[in-house]
Amino acid sequence: MNLISQIFGSNVYNDSVMRERLPKATYKALKKTIDEGLPLDFEIADVVASSMKDWAIEKGATHYTHWFQPMTGITAEKHDSFINATADGKAILEFSGRELIKGEADGSSFPSGGLRVTFEARGYTAWDCTSPAFIKNNTLYIPTAFCSYTGETLDKKTPLLRSIECLSKNAVRVLKLFGNENVTKATPTVGAEQEYFLIDKKMYDKRKDLIFTGRTLFGSKAPKGQEMDDHYYGSIKARVSSFMKDLDRELWKLGIFAKTEHNEVAPAQHELAPIFTTSNIATDHNQLIMELLKTVALKHGLVCLLHEKPFAGVNGSGKHNNWSLSTNDGQNLFDPGKTPHENVQFLLFLCAVIKAVDEYADLIRLSGANPGNDHRLGTSEAPPSIISIFLGDELTKILEQIVSGENIETNCLEKLMVGVKTLPELRKDTTDRNRTSPFAFTGNKFEFRMVGSSASIASANFFLNTAVADVLEQFADRLEKAKDFSKEVNSIIKDVVKENGRIIFNGNGYSDEWVKEAERRGLPNIKSYVEAIACLLKEKNIAVMEKQKVFSRVEMHSRYEISLEKYIKTINIEAMTMLEISKRQLLPACIKFETEIARSINEIKNCGVEVDISANTDLLKETASLVSQFKKEISLLENSLSKAQHSFEDTFEQAMFYRQDVFARMETLRTVVDELECIVASSIWPIPTYADILFNI
Ligand code: ADP
Ligand code: MG
Predict the structure, then answer these.
(1) Which InterPro entries does the UniProt entry name for this protein (predicted)?
(2) CA-based, 20 to 30 A from 632: which of 70, 203, 229, 286?
(3) How confident is the model at residue 650, as a pLDDT?
(4) How far apart are the CA of 258 and the centre of ligand 1, in A?
(5) What is the C-alpha separation between 171 and 613, in angstroms, rounded?
(6) Which residues line the pocket of ligand 1, CB cutoff 6 A?
């Protein structure tokens, strides 16, 4: 099987498989459930389950699993075989509708942020029929949502599905008012570009920091970094190319439209972009992409690093969440369109995003934050920590004209826009794009560039979907009541530009001037993950999530706790790993080097020839001084870590201490070690250096 058309989707129980294998009535009922979110009755589920099982078994599957996305950020699965025992002790292969729709999962070891008390460890998984089932490793994977027994969400899919629903509902209300009679559904679409590093497994195995934390905790810059710009879009090395080909095939089998693969800015860094799809499927697919990147790499003797900042001094990795909204009648709501009517509708939806992103900038910021991304955001390689929207000069000018326009005809959409009857065709230029903006309009979609490379894209999407849904609800309320529709549209646009226009910024987001300007505009500048987490408890944020039925107050509190714990655990592991490597590998190596110099001095002195040994003594002094600093830094980090572990009741304060004290200590320890790395003989230095790791494939 070599033709892409034969491989593509061959392991997916997709629409064409369903159409071919299900009785017509069952297919129709299932389609209705998928398209309209109606409940599926058990009889139909039984037929679907049995067809799925037969299909899976024909493809060699023996097991099935309810595949879910707990708040660890990765996926989880529990495998059951299709085998059941008959009364006379024989084995039959069975899979019922009940088993398809709902699974039990003992979730006591997944983070719940206090939502489940230990004695109530049960959770359940519910089939998400809007994302197709697939086969991987002889197992049928059924995408599911994961809830506690009392119904609280314990995963990243449930809020995403809820946000898709509320966004659709409110977008449709607005669209109906624009006369779109056939629109019954609006679906957010997403294409997530994924960056990653590939390194040789032999190097990886020698670095405990990579093994335990995913990033290098030590390492001085290699003589060469990314300054020559010779890696970006460079020719792909044979070993990497064969990995990419293999990866594409595996992804295609799962129905993932892996499209673009290229080298990225940093040495050993690459990117993969799939073609966009619905945000729910895109989120599942991104999880699969991350998983397959890792497993396929191993087959090639490589390790894929998804950490946001695996190496200091060269760029880290992110994920660009391209987002738009499309309707069941084929409109992309962020395509400006060609007619004035389409233009106005576009401008209103554009304003919904502007208002949503401005008012919920803190939630959007949080969705791009994690411990790894703290190393990137705001450091001239990734968007600043300040949320702003790039619209481009043309579009910004049009909005400004609408605000300043005075004599606007009230009853005619065509004349809504001042000076322009229709929007000029907006340039879709990929070359002079503003790459420093965290949230850029790119012609017919938005590109949210803040997500971390290791993160699930779910929260970036559910916060954005919910915020936009809420704003559209406010617009719909106003428009439904309005006596004069056009006038009201106009006044909404004006209000948004006046009240939320501060979020629009087309300049250089990496500049210091922007930081000052943003402060003047009153835009939040949330510098770190821990500080961003605090926004989960803000009343306005709880209110919007509750109103749109995406999270309850309790669920927001639980996410707050889980996020803080995630930070604490991450830094704790990093600090412990740093101490382990320092004490057992690096300090002994440095002392060995020191001793060798001392020995050389003695030997030269004793050999009876009078020579200048100042080089040896200078080097000894320099080494000894750094070694003693090294030892001191180890003690300081140990003390800080012990304080962090034992002296806090409040999780937020504890997390802040990890950030401000433990993390700061780690940085100073690293500086000393990196200096030592530059003088200790390479034959003695016990771990591979950046030069060894980054330029090895
Ligand atoms: P660009 O060159 O402007 O970055 P691409 O066409 O390469 O744009 O797209 C980048 C990503 O955006 C791809 O994953 C692509 O599938 C996705 N994308 C394109 N259109 C949409 C859309 N309407 N909704 C969501 N994602 C989209
Ligand atoms: Mg991009």
Answers:
(1) Gln-synt_C, Gln_synt_N, Gln_synth/guanido_kin_cat_dom, Gln_synth_cat_dom, Gln_synth_gly_rich_site, GS_Type-3, GSIII_N
(2) 203
(3) 95
(4) 12
(5) 79
(6) 189-191, 193, 273-276, 322-324, 332, 430, 442, 444-445
**Architecture label for domain 4-155:** Roll (3.10)
CA of 597 to the centre of ligand 1 (A): 58
Question: CA nearest 404: which of 475, 471, 490?
Answer: 490
pLDDT band at 383 (very low <50, low <70, confident <90, very high): confident
DSSP 591-622: HHHHHHHHHHHHHHHHTT-----HHHHHHHHH
pLDDT in tens, 545-570: 999 999 999 999 999 999 999 999 99
Q: Provide Rg for the chain, Cα atoms.
A: 28
Determine contact, residues 504/388, Cβ cutoff 8 Å: yes
CA of 209 to the centre of ligand 2 (A): 30
Q: Which fold has domain 193-326?
A: Creatine Kinase; Chain A, domain 2 (3.30.590)
CATH class in words for 567-694:
mainly alpha
Nearest ligand, measured from the Cα of 322: 1
Ligand nearest to the CA of 449: 2
Tens of pLDDT, residue by residue over 277-302, are: 999 999 999 999 999 999 999 999 99
User: Which ligand minimizes its atom distance to the CA of 264?
Assistant: 2
**Which atom of ligand 1 lies nearest, measured to the CA of 322?**
26
Q: How many whole angstroms separate alpha carbon 509 and alpha carbon 44?
A: 53
Beta strands of 63-109 (E only): which ranges?
Answer: 63-68, 76-81, 83-85, 91-93, 102-106
- Give the span between the Cα atoms of 28 and 34, in whole angstroms: 10
What are 332-382's pLDDT values in tens digits? 999 988 877 788 899 999 999 999 999 999 999 999 999 999 999 877 788
Report which bound ligand comes closest to the CA of 320: 2
Of all residues in the chain, what percent carry a pLDDT higher than 90? 73
- Probe residue for ligand 1, chosen from 322, 326, 441 as the CB with the greatest number of ligand atoms within 8 Å: 322
Q: How far is the CA of 479 from the centre of ligand 2 (A)?
A: 35
Q: What is the mean pLDDT of residues 414-432?
A: 48
Main-chain dihedrals φ then ψ at residue 186, nearest 5 degrees: -125, 125
Report which protein residue has its CA nearest ligand 1's atom 2.
Answer: 430
CA of 275, closest atom in ligand 1: 16
What is the value of pTM for the model shown?
Answer: 0.94
Q: How many Å lie between the centroid of ligand 2 and the Cα of residue 19? A: 35
